[in-house]
Design a protein that fits this description.
Elements lengths: L3 H26 L2 H4 L9 H19 L4 E3 L6 E3 L8 H12 L4 H14 L1 H11 L4 H17 L1 H9 L2 H23 L2 H17 L5 H13 L5 H17 L5 H6 L17 H6 L6 H4 L6 H19 L5 H17 L4 H4 L7 H19 L2 H6 L2 H23 L15 H5 L18 H13 L5 E4 L2 H10 L4 E2 L23 H11 L2 E7 L12 E7 L2 E6 L6 E12 L2 E17 L4 E4 L4 E6 L2 E9 L5 E5 L4
Parallel strand pairs: 3-4, 3-5
Antiparallel strand pairs: 1-2, 5-7, 6-7, 8-9, 9-12, 9-13, 10-13, 11-12
Helix pairs in contact: 1-6, 1-7, 3-4, 3-24, 4-5, 6-7, 6-9, 7-19, 8-9, 9-10, 9-11, 9-19, 10-12, 11-17, 16-17, 16-19, 17-19
């Protein structure tokens, strides 16, 4: 029989091995050549977050604020006020690191690595706080690592750029575990840690508070009478500390609340996706990511059901918080499509904290089920069932892992079947590493060409939204395009969201004129822009990108004349202005002001919900600036 000291040594060695596995896989998916350089990770949404972070650093260094007016994006938009509320921890991390002399892009990548690095440690801590033994806590850490790399949703989240969400999901489990332990132990240290963890959770991703809210409230109500004055005070203090992090973003968000649009374009599957997930069938990238691999999460949910039922049967107080957390989060994930409010949170992502929490009780069950004394006591029939289950599960686990390890297998031939076509995609997909990557060489080539050839000739319309966001993050060029699903009315300036109607040529000409387009960058198959040879002339082909020059000379003036001498964050400098009024083709914003001796007014524009900037009786030279007067 292993004594406590022997178990401690064994658990320490096993935990070290789990960390070794985790960091080995992390070095594969996040190679040093990508992470420890002064270029940001550029996968999908990471380019958008790089843009948001760049502007946050600029506004903080220049004005001591995390938001501002960006005339370089979408013909002018509020930056840091609406769409990046879930990126504030990233922005603050980069700003703080910059104060220590760290390059912003190195800090950007370090934030990503920090969240990745915390996975096994937070799993172990959460399990121990819930009262699991050391061995079971190690199993919990192993399950989190397997989920992190080999559950398709969780992997998709950290791969495409939802890094703040998965970081908050880790802390969501920890917050519930600390709440449980603080109430049980009534120790000051646990309350203090709870306050810190709650603040980190809320700052990292405000939507993540939905997962722990119900179980924490349930525990508070259950133990209301026995908490004592200090318990009540400390729990409310932890909640207040978490809520206080909204001060980082809430006032600008409220100030521009009329600009907040619907954000339900992603991750809102219907209930039947539960069946598709179970069968590893991929149907819709926008709803689930790709591919779909759910074996590890299925094991965790199955183990959680057994553990929660046993705890409930035995009167174990862990059944309430753990059960509510898993059930409510999973229900929101698959049923949230029926609620407008839930859809705005992209409900499918709630499966991430649900599966992480489920891994904790599942580890408890697995630890007990495979203990030697338990195996010896099993009947021969049950042992046969366990062997058969392993025979079925192990090949699927290998298949799941190999999905992300393309070097380990030859490229397979994918065969479509009638059934696979019925669900829109085969469950057998070509393995792909899906790891972190920096900006492709094509991006750098396009950027260099624009630096040398743009010549301040109007705005640049970019068809590849990831490239556009990268250019916005790494240049001060005036750009149009970016994320197609941007939920703000300023996205009317994004050509790729517009309906061209019955006369595409006239619509394109009107768009070029309205938004002062001087250059167009396309890629992929030829489309309406490539075919518009009357309005565009080819300039150069760079890799997969085609760059065109508009034949009509662009102007930033819808009314009056003048010259845009400079445009940068919070500032538009105009020279040689003339006419009874000047209407600039930049989006109006209520905090904008004009100097010297001039006034900014709103100019409505057909086809644009925001409208442009008007200055009546302008001086020959004036400046539009952001006053920060909300």
């Amino acid at each position: 029989m292993i004594d406590e000291r022997g178990e401690r040594r064994w658990a320490f060695a096993a935990l070290a091995a789990v960390h070794g596995l985790h960091f080995g896989l992390l070095s594969y998916f996040a190679p040093a050549s990508t992470m420890f350089v002064t270029r940001p990770v550029a996968n999908f949404d990471y380019s958008l977050h790089a843009y948001q972070t760049t502007r946050a650093v600029e506004t903080w260094n220049g004005w001591g604020e995390l938001w501002g007016y960006d005339p370089l994006s979408l013909a002018g938009q509020p930056t840091g006020a609406i769409e990046d509320l879930t990126s504030k921890s990233l922005e603050l991390f980069v700003i703080a690191a910059g104060g220590l002399g760290v390059h912003p892009w190195l800090a950007f990548n370090a934030y990503i690595l920090t969240i990745n690095a915390l996975v096994p440690a937070l799993a172990y801590a959460s399990a121990r706080l819930f009262g699991l033994g050391r061995t079971a806590a190690v199993v919990s850490s192993l399950l989190w690592v397997l989920l992190w790399y080999f559950d398709s949703l969780l992997h998709w989240c950290w791969y495409v750029g939802m890094i703040s969400w998965v970081g908050a999901a880790l802390f969501a489990v920890l917050v519930v575990a600390l709440t449980y332990r603080a109430i049980e132990s009534k120790r000051l240290g646990h309350y203090v840690l709870l306050g810190f963890a709650t603040a980190v959770l809320c700052l990292t991703h405000p939507f993540a508070i939905l997962a722990p809210l119900v179980p924490c409230v349930a525990m508070y109500v259950r133990d209301f009478r026995s908490l004592g004055a200090r318990g009540h005070a400390m729990l409310w203090a932890a909640a207040a500390l978490g809520a206080s992090t909204t001060l980082v973003w809430i006032f600008p968000a409220l100030g521009f609340r009329e600009y907040i649009g619907e954000t339900d374009a992603f991750l809102r599957p219907a209930p039947y996706f539960l069946l598709l997930d179970t069968l590893d069938w991929w149907k819709d990238t926008l709803n689930t990511g790709e591919p779909v691999r759910t074996l590890v999460r299925t094991v965790c949910f199955a183990g959680a059901v057994v553990a929660i039922w046993q705890w409930h049967r035995d009167g174990d107080r862990r059944a309430l918080p753990v059960g509510l957390f898993v059930v409510v989060s999973a229900a929101v994930a698959y049923l949230g499509v029926y609620s407008w409010t839930a859809r705005q949170t992209q409900p499918y992502r709630q499966l991430v904290p649900a599966m992480l929490m489920a891994a904790v009780p599942a580890a408890h069950v697995l630890r007990n089920a495979f203990a030697k004394r338990e195996l010896v006591s099993l009947s021969p029939a049950v042992r046969v069932v366990l062997v058969l289950a392993a025979v079925l599960a192990v090949p699927r686990l290998v298949r799941t892992a190999l999905t992300y390890l393309p070097e380990a297998v030859p490229v397979p031939v994918v065969h479509e079947t009638t059934l696979s076509r019925a669900v829109s995609a085969s469950s057998d997909q070509v393995p792909s590493r899906k790891g972190y990557q920096g900006p492709p060489e094509d991006y750098l080539v396009v950027r260099r060409w624009l630096f040398n050839n743009h010549a301040e000739r109007g705005r640049i319309l970019v068809g590849d939204w990831v490239l556009e966001e990268f250019l916005a993050a790494s240049t001060h060029l005036p750009l149009l395009g970016g994320l197609y699903e941007r939920p703000i009315p300023h996205a009317d300036a994004n050509f790729f969201k517009r309906d061209l109607g019955p006369d595409p040529k006239a619509a394109i000409d009107a768009y070029f004129e309205r938004y002062a387009v001087g250059w167009v960058i396309t890629h992929g198959d030829f489309g309406v822009l490539d075919e518009n040879r009357e309005g565009l002339e080819p300039a150069v082909a760079l890799g997969k990108y085609r760059i065109y020059r508009t034949r009509r000379e662009p102007s930033f003036f819808a009314s009056g004349t003048g010259a845009i001498e400079a445009q940068s964050v919070n500032r538009i400098q105009v020279a040689s202005a003339s006419g009874p009024e000047v209407v600039l083709k930049f989006h109006w914003m209520r905090t904008l002001r004009c100097r010297p001796d001039c006034t900014v007014d709103h100019a409505p524009v057909d086809g644009d919900r925001v409208g442009f900037i008007r200055v009546v009786n302008p001086p020959a030279r004036f400046e539009i600036y952001n006053s920060y007067e909300l």
